[in-house]
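Journal club side-thread
Mid-discussion, someone asked how the predicted structure for our own chain would compare to the paper's figures. Pasting it here so we can look after the session.
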Amino acid sequence: MITDKHFAEFITQAQRVGKERLQLCSSGNISWRVEEDLALISGTGSWLPRITENKIAACRISDGMPVQGVKPSMESSFHLGVLRTRKDVNVVLHFQSQYATVVSCMKDKPTNFNVIAEVPCYCGREISIVDYHRPGSPELAKAVTTALTNNDTALLSKHGQVVCGKDFDDAFQKAVFFELACQIIVNAGAGNYLTLTEQEVDDLDKYILGKTSK
């Protein structure tokens, strides 16, 4: 059951998107699994930094059917696709931060984003690159869902970015650190920045995250 507390929390977290400068106007959308088969999703055309309860949709994750509220975001298909595929995540955030969006429009995109330790630690050792598909299209929904099956961060060519996380803090942390990495890459210029070596990333896995690399 969706309660007033769920809506209040969703509004608070959606407004963080603006505070973190992760999007402009209606360019982003966010979803939150509140029950096993129920998610709240920002409504179509809504501005996350000033979203209100009457701009929030509730949909079944299993089939995408709206059960309450307004029409969900045009990107709801990939939000729900990720939530269906990834039982370990509960939040999906689509955003268009300044530097990461610049990188998404580059002809020759980086193949390695590990310019700082926070990227492999939180965003993932690899960042999925998704070819351009029309926003809101079934092709985009399928491509994003596939890209985030094994990774947590995706760069959408000529479009924006998507991250998924176990909770809001996890998703926001990935978005902010990925934006920072892209800022470093853009400001440094092509070929003028260093990335962590595989050994250095393995050391992070072992000594900071307490796991072994795959």
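Post-session note: The chain has one domain: 4-208.
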